[in-house]
Amino acid sequence: MPERTLPPFRADHVGSLLRPEKLRKARDAHERNALSAADLARVEDEAIREAVRLQEDVGLRAITDGEYRRSSWNRDFLEGFSGVRTVEGQIATRFHSEAGEFQVKPTGFRIEGKLAHPKGIFVDAFKFLKGVAKNGVPKVTFPSPTLLHFRGGRKAVDEKAYPDMDLFFADLARVYQEEISELAAAGCRYIQIDDTNYAYLCDPSLRAQVQSNIGEDPAKLPAVYAKLLNAAIAKRPKDMAVGIHVCRGNNQSAWVAEGGYEPVAESLFNEVNVEAYFLEYDSPRAGDFRPLRFLPKGKIAVLGLVTTKRPELETKDELKRRIEDAAKFAPLEQLALSPQCGFSSTVEGNKVTVDDEVKKLRLVVEVAREVWG
């Protein structure tokens, strides 16, 4: 079976990489006003050059900047829109890990006025990445527009600015369209939307909170969010590939949501107009592969079989067996392989080393070559 020449690739990845210690220290110094923005940018530039070399050396064709210019996978982007203020989220999440549990309320967002897109948010970062990624396709990752609704619902949207929620969703789609258009004009042809909310809607306890805390019907939200996502990407160029990563939470090797994709699979795969779905399948909490039976022809399910949460390295035989199991529900030519999430959705990163990270990325590449040719 031939390698895919366009993204998503048979061996792909979700995006974030472990931050080098020098970069973490520089960001901390900048936040203490002990390092200028220009000096921080120089440290980021060098770290990104090294991250690009790492990805190219292991054989990846999708190249990201490791999310090295961000302090958060979602906040840095969403605060770039006018009208958005960071607040405490209304959905309480309990993170689970092998070391124990801890509960937090994740960042929420308050819509205080009309949404606007005053300037490109990740456009300059993409231009730099494009300039240094010579042997692959530069990919930009950013949070889903659904976050500006899911973490607060109607109560988080100012009624004077948006008396009608349809107007809010229309403006939200528009500001995403404007960012994507600027990225496209800069040469971007591969984007990935990171969405936790479809995964949260697979977890019974979180579905209950959606009903009680933000007053939304969890059974109706997949269709609402599919419409929003489609509007957000509606004006992308025809040659721009779009993937959506369905994330169960990723904070220092801990996760939030549990449960298989069955409650959202039919809507997610058939109503959201993207080319690829990055699906977390690194543990039993993700359920089985049966939901892949809803994957329509022409779309790719990128199986996140290699965990970023633990240092133990999966075996090739184990991964190949699981790919064979998935192929019972979706054709092999519609499957690909990746780690289940990024290695560092937060600045702190997961409980793995850079050496672990490299081994896992190389494993993804090698297994993909052996399975798909």
Structural descriptors:
single chain; 373 residues; alpha/beta; TIM Barrel; six-stranded parallel sheet; 12 helices; globular
Number of strands: 12
CATH topology: TIM Barrel
Assembly of the depicted chains: single chain
Mean pLDDT: 93
- Secondary-structure arrangement, i.e. CATH architecture: Alpha-Beta Barrel
Architecture overview:
37% of the residues lie in helices and 17% in strands. With 373 residues, it is of the alpha/beta class. The chain has a single domain, classed as TIM Barrel, CATH 3.20.20. α6 (165-185) runs parallel beside α9 (221-232). It is globular, with a radius of gyration of 19 Å. The termini are close together. The model has no long low-confidence stretch (mean pLDDT 93).
Reconstruct the topology from this structure.
Layout: H1 21-31, H2 37-58, E1 62-63, H3 75-78, E2 82-88, E3 93-97, E4 100-104, E5 107-116, H4 123-132, E6 137-138, E7 140-143, H5 147-150, H6 165-185, E8 190-195, H7 197-200, H8 204-213, H9 221-232, E9 241-246, H10 262-271, E10 276-280, E11 300-306, H11 316-326, E12 335-339, H12 354-372
Parallel strand pairs: 1-6, 7-8, 8-9, 9-10, 10-11, 11-12
Antiparallel strand pairs: 2-5, 3-4
Helix pairs in contact: 1-2, 6-9, 9-10
